[in-house]
Design a protein that fits this description.
Length: about 280
């Protein structure tokens, strides 16, 4: 009706769904009850999705399960989101409402268009970025990206050197594993290999963010806001890496187009290496 959304039946199986038309960064939500009525929602869940099929619940730390709603029909209850949602579809799911009325909602969503560069991998391809040694800062390396997949295994990132040194980021059984191999075990046996695993169920077809920073002998590995700080015993300057990064798989040396191990099958978004937008470069070159 004219006073807002009020479903015919008030029960736990109702929801109000919004299609924003494109992926949007949502920073806050606000609700009211039905205009001039005794219908208002006192608590609700907020769900989000890119496809309208596969939904995820938004969770704020101070209220894990639900957002507090309204206590009357007309006051506006505003919630700033602790971390923004990036999605095309939103669902408001009423949990409780005024016992002397029905479910009734007017809602406002705050945010802006989300700008992103996305590339899809079919499990048979990879993206190779070769960069100029002179542009390279030896002090620090920073790689960031988001990924989305239904596959529980796949290589996200690989970089290797001539003496067996390599850095590999791989999805194994839905968890992300960062493997740093320092090649020659005779020279520095104590830290021949560093293997850090973070996250779980990362093959849920939702976006997950990854940040890898390494400088000197310090590694910071972050997956979805969970960070593992690692201090290598030796010097990271041992890493004799080539000026080439591959995303989505490991190209087999000498056989162009051939890939080893499990390739990544899914999407990457906003890949950055030391501030360089890799997907944008690939599109332009």
């Amino acid at each position: 009706g004219a006073g807002g959304w009020s479903p015919l039946v008030s029960n736990k199986y109702q929801w109000l769904q919004i299609d924003l038309g494109e992926r949007t960064e949502i920073t806050a939500v606000a609700t009211q009850g039905g205009y001039g009525s005794s219908d208002w929602v006192t608590s609700y869940l907020l769900m989000f999705s890119d496809s309208g099929q596969n939904w995820k619940q938004y969770r704020q730390e101070e209220s894990i399960w639900a957002f507090s709603g309204n206590t009357n029909a007309d006051s506006v209850v505003y919630h700033k989101l602790q971390h923004s949602i990036k999605a095309r579809f939103l669902r408001f799911v009423p949990l409780d409402w005024n016992p002397n009325g029905r479910i009734g909602m007017r809602i406002e969503v705050y945010g802006c268009t989300y700008r992103s560069e996305v590339v899809g991998f079919d499990g048979k391809s990879c993206l190779i970025y070769t960069f100029n040694q002179k542009l390279m800062s030896a002090l620090k390396d920073v790689i960031s990206l988001k990924f989305k997949t239904m596959q529980s295994d796949g290589i996200l990132l690989h970089r290797e050197g001539q003496n067996g040194d390599h850095v590999t980021l791989e999805l194994i059984k839905g968890k992300l594993s960062l493997l740093i191999n320092l090649g020659d075990t005779k020279t520095h046996p104590s830290n021949a290999q560093i293997n850090i695993t973070l996250g779980s169920l990362l093959d849920d077809q939702h976006w997950h963010s990854v940040l890898i920073e390494y400088f000197n002998n310090q590694v910071n590995f972050t997956v979805d806001k969970h960070t593992h700080h690692f201090h290598a015993k030796g010097e990271f300057s041992y890493l004799d890496l080539e000026y080439e990064l591959s995303f989505g798989g490991i190209p087999v040396p000498g056989k162009s187009g051939t890939l080893s191990r499990r390739n990544f099958h899914g999407c990457f978004e906003n890949i950055y290496y030391n501030g360089v937008n890799i997907i944008d470069l690939a599109r332009r070159h």
